Description:
The structure holds two protein chains of two kinds.
Chain A: H1 2-18, H2 20-53, H3 56-105, H4 115-126, H5 128-132, H6 134-158, H7 164-168, H8 170-204, H9 207-215, H10 219-271, H11 277-325, E1 342-350, E2 360-368, E3 372-377, H12 383-390, E4 398-403, E5 406-407, H13 413-418, E6 420-424, H14 434-439, H15 449-458, H16 464-467, H17 488-499, E7 507-511, H18 519-540, E8 543-547, H19 551-554, E9 559-564, E10 567-572, H20 574-580, H21 583-592
Parallel strand pairs in A: 3-8, 3-9, 6-7, 7-8
Antiparallel strand pairs in A: 1-2, 1-4, 4-5, 9-10
Helix pairs in contact in A: 1-2, 1-3, 1-11, 2-3, 2-6, 2-11, 3-11, 4-11, 6-11, 8-10, 8-11, 10-11, 15-17
Chain B: H1 2-9, H2 11-48, H3 53-104, H4 114-124, H5 133-160, H6 164-192, H7 194-208, H8 213-218, H9 222-249, H10 252-274, H11 280-294, H12 301-309, H13 312-326, E1 341-350, E2 357-367, E3 371-375, H14 382-389, E4 397-402, E5 405-406, H15 412-416, E6 419-422, H16 433-438, H17 448-458, H18 461-465, H19 487-503, E7 508-512, H20 520-528, H21 530-534, E8 538-542, H22 546-549, E9 554-559, E10 562-567, H23 569-575, H24 578-596
Parallel strand pairs in B: 3-8, 3-9, 6-7, 7-8
Antiparallel strand pairs in B: 1-2, 1-4, 4-5, 9-10
Amino acid sequence: MRDRMRALWTVTRLAFRADRAAAIAATLLSLVSGVFGTLSTVAFARAVQAVVAGDPQAGLGAVIALVVLGRLSFTASMVMLDLRFRLVELVGELVESELIDAMTGFTGLELHERPVHLDRLEVLRKQVGNLSNSIGALMHNVSLWTGLASTVGVLVSVHPLLLVLPIAGIPALVVTARGTTRFEQALDDSSEQLRRADHLYLLATAAGPGKELRTFGLGREVVARHARFLREGYDAVSRVQLRWGALAGVAWATQGLAQIGAIAFAAMLAIDGRASVGDVVLVATLVGALEGHLQELLGMVTWLFNTLRAAERYAAVVDAATTASDELPLEPAPVPAALQRGIELDGVSFRYPDTESETLRDVSLLLPAGATVAVVGENGAGKSTLVKLLGRFYEPTSGVIRVDGVDLRRFDAAAWRGRLSGAFQDHARFELIAREVVGVGDLERIDDEPSVVVALGRAGCGELPERLEDGLGTRLGRSFDDGIEPSGGQWQQLALGRALLRDQPLLLLLDEPTSALDPDAEHALFEGYAAAAREAARTSGAITLLVSHRFSTVRMADLIVVMEDGKVSQVGSHDELMAAGGLYAELFTMQARAYR
Amino acid sequence: MLLRELPRASRGATAAVAACVVALPALRTIQALMTGLLFAAIPGAVEDGFDSDAGRSLVLRLALFGTAYVLGQLAAGLDDPLRGILARRVDERARERVLRAVAAAPGIAHLEDPALLDLVERARKAGPGGESPGGAADGLAQLTVRYLTVATGTVIVASFRWWLPILLVPVLLLAGRTMRRHINVTVETTMTMTRDLRRARYLSDLAMTPAAAKELRLFGLGSWLRDRFLTTHRAAIEPVWRARAASRRRLVLPELARGVVAFVAYGVLVDAAVHGEISVGRFGFLFSAIQMVWGLSSMTNADVAYSFGIRALPAIPELEAALEQTRLPGTRAAGVMPVEAVRFEGVSFRYPGSENAILDGLDLELRAGESLAVVGSNGAGKTTLVKLLARFYDPTAGRVTVDGVDLRELDASSWQCRVAAIFQDFTHYELSVAENVGLGAPALLDDRDALREAARRAGALELIEALPDGWDTVLSRRVAGGVELSGGEWQRIALARALLAVDAGAGILVLDEPTANLDARAETQLYDRFLELTAGVTTVVISHRFSTVRRADRIVVLRHGRVVESGSHDELLALGGRYARMFQLQAARFDREVSSA
């Protein structure tokens, strides 16, 4: 309940933050418009009384009241609708922008690699509509409840005992609410099936997988599986919905008996002379109005409920992100302008959250200032994890990383990253203007075309802009109809250009950055980049850390680190390692055989 | 069109919803009638007490009113889930039709055409709130209830004053239309804005998907991304605001007209009742009837669900028609082709809508049973060559023949099944390992021995058997108990899939960069087995790695969309051309050790 109240609070605040004036106006209007409905009912009862009494004057008054109230109520609802549209748009925008902040605000990658969190985020994003409509749901509920309250008020004014009437509706409300919970639960339980169906739908309608579906003749198979997953998931939901719908029908019907009782009771009062004929008509009319209110509540409870669930998810996502960025730095230290000694790993071990085994085990290593260090090893040896720790995407489980003797954790993460750069095998495909795709590597120069050209030159692909239709102004990516899709190799070259845009990083992380490039392009990269690296090494003691499977490249490094099973097994220059005759010599010779 | 879809999606659900659709307005009318009768009985009962005729009549009418009420509640309780069921069935069918149509089209040009992909997306959900064809069915049922109620009310009102509906209906229709139009402004503009909105959406996606997480942090892009999202979204939404403000002004006049007719209608009714022309009971009944007519100008979520969702529906036949157009000619079955050779004869190719010729007069022969390596720098046309070989596209000029028969004469699907291919962007199925391998040949899906054999040859057996649930392990972290494989491991699984297809009888094996993600040892193991894997199988391998390439029977070098060199490894080295230069460039870096090893 507390969580729910907090969620309600979050949602309300969102609307007020998105557009205070609109939110206030909408709330006031919904308070008023609920009362309009009840007043209309009273006006109708007056009209009936006028008819019974045969009083034309009273009749005219009642009609005028009816018409004016009806129009006022409608105008209010139209204005409210527009306000709601606006709030939906603005709250949606606000939620998205806060989610962007939340998901980019924490230092590490942990949340990005935690399935529970990603699931929650995915569901939440599908429900942003619900969330941004939250103020609408709230307002509608407010107007409904004010309507309900005023109706009840009028009933009680006839006789206090009529308070039983709305109370008799409580079991029905409870059944409805429970039905909604069960329905949501069923949706959750089916989400795996539905997600699998979605996965297949996307596979079958995307170009890449489309190629395989065709050569393996899988069309029919995928269509059948998609249908099966969808049916299984939906059927489970439908069963629950039907069962609880029927129960709710029974509950509401039972509640209706109380309403019949109320009319009979009012008639009895009138017979006893304790109420007028008009009161009986009023009660009979209000019973109908009450039915309307409660009927609408059926839908509104569901709506509000969905909103609250989305709000709870939202709060959970933001909380998780906030917690993830909560870190107590040791005594802060400035990032040095240049490296003197280098970066030292001292007994560093690392285990991914929720896993049993250590990916890195007691790694001690010095990356000397100014050196190019290559890391080699087989898949799963821990190479990429090492890169992630140096980029502070994760903190070591034990042990310390020191930069010129200073604990890495003492640096402000953003300041440290300001002096890093890097390219990864699983690089991002930013679907932006080509210039920006490289330019985001150094935001201050995002529109600085000459710098971008230089960076691409360093990446060995200075000719890339010429191959694009509008040069650096070409929009890349096929998510939009005016973009062109670069090849896998071109995306990788762009990622490299991005990494090499920063002039003086202290540490350049290259994690298999050339796997999709042909040897020519790779050669050009290292030629183009070597000069820049040497310059950086001389002036700022910059270190380049390169992970690669290509030993022809690896051997050029000043220092080669061989990793096996999470441990450093060998360190040395190419010649030293070849002479030592361990894993390195074995793998090198293996690959060299191709060129014998 | 929607009406025809409903029984096809589910006869039972359609019948049940139809029953509710008829019952609800009927019950509503009966309730209105009973309300009137109830009112009529009240004064008499109050006068004479319960124990009089008037009193007994009140009790009876109360009981009838109660019965109608209870039935109405039960119908309403069932109506909602039944509509839900129908909506889901309609969605199932819509999605299935899309998938069938897409899967039946043999080419893949359509899957790279944003306009067509837009249709695919629209068929699933048309509105910003994910309104689907099913939503339209749900909305339609609710709207039918509304309009049946309106019709009943109109008849009842006409029985009182024939001219009253003539006054009411046009005004209410007009008011309703203006209002729905006003709401459609938001709907419409949101839809035409899709590109800008999508761009905004893409930017927030970037922040939330793991793919870019590392670089967003490394380059400190968080707040830049948020600001960029905000400006993009604002640019998309501000025109909507302007259009809405303009449309709001058009609402005023119809609203005033509605006030006038409301005054006339209620005025006439009250006047007649006050002067005793109609009874109190009839007054109550007619009053309810006027309110029923009023539904004509109402607007609920059903309108939105219907008006958005209904747009999804035409997308399906439109898609089917567009895909019908992409149908490639040819009817001959591919049988066991190729027995002799596949030949590219002066083949040129441009991607639709592009001016760059990717292939430009390419001649190439792939002999049955031989392995052919294709090398060339990025963008030389290697992958495109394979796409034409598998007939995902037909050449813009020239022709591809198999055993002398133009590929265009063959049934495309039949030919495609002859080709077992693993592409660079091979598919990661979020299914079990067994299925990830087995989907190479659906017929062998349950043949564990066949799967094991293919996995063994791909070097994937050990890794599969080490998985927590062995062959039944689901390869997705998003599924409970599932695991995610590394790039190199995935690649071996994909390779096993292709090899299974070959075992099942595919005639050509295509490997597009099969070793890109493998480490040195795995790569070596693979090329050591290359000859075993490809023995007797017509194979095309695209690779940057000479370790793989040199094992092929024949190598072609592609440059600017043509074959510039062709021959065995030794022949090409002797030729001293482009291949030799690329090879030596690599070899030089290993050179010292090679000579001393």
